[in-house]
From TrEMBL, chains A, B:
Name the record gives this protein: Glutamate pyruvate transaminase
Transferase among keywords: yes
Lineage summary: Eukaryota, Fungi, Dikarya, Ascomycota, Saccharomycotina
Gene (UniProt): KNAG0M01210
Region of interest called Disordered, as start-end residue ranges on this chain: 1-30
Entries under InterPro entries matching the protein: ALAT1/2-like, Aminotransferase_I/II_large, PyrdxlP-dep_Trfase, PyrdxlP-dep_Trfase_major, PyrdxlP-dep_Trfase_small
Cofactors demanded by this protein: pyridoxal 5'-phosphate
GO biological process assignments: L-alanine catabolic process
Alphabetic keyword roster: Aminotransferase, Pyridoxal phosphate, Transferase
GO molecular function, one term: transaminase activity
Domain Aminotransferase class I/classII large: 124-502
SUPFAM superfamilies cross-referenced by the UniProt entry: PLP-dependent transferases
Compositionally biased region (Polar residues): 1-16
Length: 521, 521
C-alpha cells in the first residue's frame, strides 16, 4: 500500500459543511479525488491460515462439485450419471434416515404448540406418545425456547444427561455435568482445545498418521509443531506406545514440548479400534510427561468386528484406582463425541460434547471464556446429543421402532463396509485392512512406476492422480491418502462406505482393473 | 516440566510381552514407576486467548448465575425474587415468542413425515397451509434432510433467497448467492474474517469505542492491534470521519497497517444509526487506504426513531455509480446479519450470514477453506435465515398473523426502550442518549468522588462497582461500560431493554436514588 501522509487527509469538516454539493438530503459525499488502494491478496493474510490444508473438502471434492453442475446441464458429456459422495462421512446426504424418535422430539421443541395436539397426533399415528413427554422435559431444561442462548457450557439438564450416559457407558465410572461442555459438533471442541493449548511455535501436538485433517489444519492455524506418530498398517493400523514415547523424547531434545496427544479411537481414516492395553500405555506416557490427551471418540458406536470400545476415561479411572500413589492423578483428558456419527448421523445439526477430566480450574476457566465468546452451541444440537445418548427405554412407545432403526442403520453400514472390503480383497494392487470401526476404508494402492511417473508429469501425487481418474471415470469422489498423511512412498485412498447400492462398487472395480491394465509396468 | 531423558523411557516391548502381570485379559499395563508430571496452568496456554476479555459474560453475569442458584436454594436470604437478565440480547430467554410461521416450517424440516398430515393439521388449526409449502421448498433446496452437512458456504437455494432479500432491501442494488456465506450467527462470520485478516502484530483493526466486545476479544486472540475510533456521545454517539482518518494516518506513521474497520450499525451498545453521509465517508476512507470494511448490521431491523437504516452495500453501490473513474471499485466489504436479533430473536438457533463484496478471488478461497474446516453452519439455522428474510407474503395463509407478530415484537421493544430511557431522564447523575436502534441503552453515570473512591478501595472500576451493587440489590444483571470501552474518566452501564414488565425498571430507579444518596460528595 502506498502510505498516505497528512497532506492527503480529506477535509471532512469543510467538505461536509461547505464544499459538498447537496442533492437534497444527506446522500452525497465529498468528491475529493484519491487513488484507490489495491485489493488484498493472500500475502496480506494470516499466513498460518493460508498454510492450513483440509483435503476432505479439497481439490477433488471441489472438482466433484463442478462435475455435479455439469451433470445437471450436459449429462451426456460425462461417462457417469451421478456423483458418488464418498469423501466425507455424511450419511443423511446419502440414503440414511434420521432416527424417528429424535426428530419427533426436536420438531416439538421447534414448535411447542404441538404439545396441545398430542392426542390427535398420537391417534393418527403421526407421533408416538413418549416423544411429547421427552420434549416437555427438554423444554423445561432448556428454559422454554430453543431460540434462547443457553449457558456457554450448554444446558445444565442436558449435561446431566450426558454425564449419566458416560457413567453407564463406562460401567459405573461416574461423570459430572460440570465436566461436560456442549459444542457445535466435535470439531468445535477440538478447535477450542487446540487454540488454547497451542501456546507457541515450541508447542508440539502429537497426532497419529494417518489422521483426520482437522488436526493438521488446526496445528498449522495455531502455529504449533506437528509431532507425528505412525500407525502400523500391517497390524491393522495399530498404535505403538514405543513409537509415541520415542517421538516425545526426540521432540523434547530438539526443544519442542509435546503438549497434546491426539488419539482417534476408532480411527479416522483407519477404522482401527484401540485395546485397553494400548490406551493404558498412551495414558502412562501422558501421565509421565504431562501431555494432555485429546480423545476423538466420535466413532465409539461404529464398531463392526468382535472388538470392544474402551473409552479413555474408563481406562484412566481404572489406572487411577490401580495406582493409589497417584501416578495417574494429574492426567488431563478431553474426550469428544458427536451427533454426526454413530447411528445418529445428524451432521447438519452440529451437536457434540467434550468431557474434561483432570484439568486445573485455571485452564477450565479459559476454555469457558472461549466458549462464552462464541456465546453458545446450537440448542437443538444440544437436545440431539441428549436424544442420541438416551434413547427410548423398554416399555416406552418408541422403544421397538427405535431399536429396529438403530440396528438397521448399524447393520447397513457394516454390510456395505464389508462389501467394499471384499471387493478390494479381490483386486490387484490394492491392500485393505479389515474394517473394525468408523465409516471409512483406507486401502493402500500399490502403484506401478508408470502410474507414478504419469502422476508426476501432471504435477500430482500418485494417489491424488488415482483419485482424479476415479472421479473422472466413475463419478466416485474420494480423498487421496496424502490428505491424511501416510508413510513416505506409500499411497492410499480414503473412502466412506456409506453410499447406497452396489453399482458404485462395481464401477470402482471396473475402473481399478482398467487403471492397472493401462499403467502396468 | 522436568525433561525426561532416554534412560527414563519405558520398555514397552519387554513390558507388554514379559514383565507385565496379566489379570486375565489385556486390561493391565506396565507397572513401571514414574513421577507424574504437573498439570497445566494458565502460563502454559496461548497467551492471546488468556488476554482476551469478554464482559457480556464476564464477572457480573457469572455472579448473577451464582445468585440464581442461591435464589433457588435459599430465596429468603436475597433482597429480590428473580434475576433480571439485562446483560445480553437474548429475547426468548425473557418473554419474547418466536415467530409462528418460522417455527412451523422448521418443525416440519425436523420431522418431514408431518408433510403427510397437512390436511389434518391445517383443519385442526395446528398449522397454516403455507408452512407446508415453504417447508417442502426448503427441504428440496437442502437436499432432503437438515441432518446432512450442507456445502461449507451454505445451502445454495437459501443463499439465493438471501441475495433476493438484499436486492429488495437495497432498493434494487443486486446481490449474488455466490457472495453469501451462511454462518453460525454473525459472531462466527466476524471471527472467520478477523482470524484471516489479522495478519500479525503490525495489523491494525479499527473499532468504534464503545463496541461489542467480540471485536476486542478477537483482535487480542489473533494478535493484532486495536485502533479505536471514539464515538461522540454528546451527538447521540455519532461517528466522525475525521476521527477515523486521523487514526488511520497516526497508525500508519507508527508502523501499524490499518487493515479492517469494524462498523456497527445500528450501534451496539450505543444504538446509534449511521446516516448515508457518514457511511459514504467511511467508505471513502476504506477506498483510499485499502481498508476492509466489516459491517456488523445485525440490528438493521431494530430501528425505533424516525431514522432510516442504510446498508453499507447500498451506499457503496451508489458511490461506485457516482464515480465512474473507479475510485470505489476496490472497496472490500463484508456485511453481517443474524437471526438472533431483529424481531426473529432466534439466538439459540445460530443462524447468520455474511455478504462479501469486492474481495479478490484469492481471499475468498481462503475464507471458503476456513469455512470448510468447520464443515458447515447448522442447517436449521440456515433455514431460519431464509424464513427471517422472506416472511409470508400478502395472500399467504400466515401473512396476517406474521405481520401482527412482527409488529407486536417491534413495538414492545420500542415501548420498553423508551420507558427505560424516560426513567433515566428523570434520574440524577445518569445521562442517556435517546434510543435509535438495537436493543440496548448505554447511559453515562456521573459518579461522585465518594463512589469512585469506594470502588477503588474494592479494586473495582467505578462502573463495575455500580453494576455489582445494582445486581446485589435488585437482581438486575448489566454490564459495566468498561467492558465495551469508553473515554477515559467516563463511566457507563449497558442494559438491554428486553426484560418484561415494569417492576425491574422501578427497582432500578429505587436503587439508583439510594446509591446516589449514599455516595453523595
Amino acid at each position: 500500500m502506498i502510505l498516505s501522509n497528512e497532506q492527503k487527509q480529506m477535509h471532512w469538516t469543510t467538505s461536509s459543511s461547505k464544499k459538498r454539493q447537496h442533492t437534497g438530503d444527506d446522500s452525497t459525499v465529498s468528491g475529493l479525488a484519491f487513488e484507490p488502494a489495491r485489493k488484498l491478496g493472500a500475502d496480506d493474510l494470516n499466513k498460518n491460515i493460508i498454510d492450513a490444508e483440509y483435503a476432505v473438502r479439497g481439490a477433488i471434492p471441489m472438482k466433484a462439485e463442478e462435475l455435479e453442475i455439469q451433470l445437471s446441464q450436459q449429462p451426456d458429456l460425462l461417462p457417469f450419471n451421478a456423483i458418488t459422495v464418498a469423501n466425507i462421512g455424511n450419511p443423511q446426504q446419502l440414503d440414511q434416515k434420521p432416527l424417528t424418535f429424535s426428530r419427533q422430539v426436536v420438531s416439538i421443541l421447534q414448535y411447542p404448540p404441538l404439545l396441545d395436539y398430542e392426542e390427535q397426533l398420537v391417534t393418527s399415528g403421526a407421533y408416538k406418545r413418549d416423544a411429547f413427554k421427552r420434549a416437555a422435559v427438554l423444554l423445561e431444561q432448556i428454559g422454554g425456547s430453543v431460540g434462547a442462548y443457553s449457558l456457554a457450557q450448554g444446558v445444565y439438564g442436558i449435561r446431566e444427561s450426558v454425564a449419566d450416559f458416560i457413567t453407564r457407558r463406562d460401567e459405573g465410572e461416574t461423570a459430572s455435568p460440570d465436566d461436560i461442555f456442549l459444542t457445535d459438533g466435535a470439531s468445535k471442541a477440538a478447535t477450542y482445545l487446540l487454540s488454547i493449548l497451542c501456546r507457541d511455535s515450541s508447542t508440539g501436538i502429537m497426532i497419529p498418521i494417518p489422521q483426520y485433517p482437522l488436526y493438521t489444519a488446526s496445528i498449522t492455524m495455531y502455529n504449533s509443531v506437528m509431532l507425528p506418530y505412525y500407525l502400523d498398517e500391517e497390524s491393522g493400523w495399530s498404535t505403538k506406545a514405543e513409537e509415541i514415547e520415542q517421538q516425545v523424547i526426540d521432540s523434547i531434545k530438539r526443544g519442542v514440548t509435546p503438549r497434546v496427544i491426539v488419539v482417534i479411537n476408532p480411527g479416522n481414516p483407519t477404522g482401527a479400534v484401540l485395546s485397553f492395553d494400548t490406551i493404558a500405555q498412551i495414558l502412562t506416557i501422558a501421565a509421565k510427561y504431562g501431555i494432555v490427551v485429546l480423545a476423538d471418540e466420535v466413532y465409539q458406536n461404529n464398531i463392526y468386528k468382535g472388538v470392544k470400545f474402551h473409552s479413555m476415561k474408563k481406562v484412566l479411572r481404572s489406572l487411577q484406582r490401580d495406582h493409589p500413589n497417584g501416578e495417574y492423578d494429574n492426567v488431563q483428558l478431553a474426550s469428544m463425541h458427536s451427533t454426526s456419527k454413530g447411528v445418529s448421523g445428524e451432521c447438519g445439526q452440529r451437536g457434540g460434547y467434550m468431557e474434561l477430566v483432570g484439568f486445573s480450574n485455571e485452564v477450565r476457566q479459559v476454555i469457558l471464556k472461549l466458549a462464552s465468546i462464541s456465546i453458545c452451541s446450537v440448542v437443538t444440537g444440544q437436545a440431539l446429543v441428549d436424544l442420541m445418548l438416551n434413547p427410548p427405554r423398554e416399555g416406552d412407545d418408541s422403544y421397538e421402532l427405535d431399536v429396529r432403526e438403530r440396528k438397521e442403520i448399524h447393520n447397513n453400514m457394516k454390510t456395505r463396509g464389508y462389501l467394499l472390503y471384499d471387493t478390494f480383497q479381490k483386486l490387484e494392487g490394492i491392500e485393505c485392512q479389515e474394517p473394525q470401526g468408523a465409516m471409512y476404508l483406507f486401502p493402500k494402492l500399490l502403484l506401478s512406476k508408470k502410474a507414478i511417473e504419469e502422476a508426476k508429469s501432471l504435477g500430482l501425487q500418485p494417489d491424488e492422480f488415482y483419485c482424479h481418474r476415479l472421479l473422472d471415470t466413475t463419478g466416485i469422489c474420494t480423498v487421496p491418502g496424502s490428505g491424511f498423511g501416510q508413510k513416505e512412498g506409500t499411497y492410499h485412498v480414503r473412502t466412506t462406505f456409506l453410499a447406497p447400492g452396489t453399482q458404485w462398487i462395481k464401477d470402482w472395480e471396473t475402473f481399478h482393473k482398467a487403471f492397472y491394465d493401462k499403467y502396468r509396468d
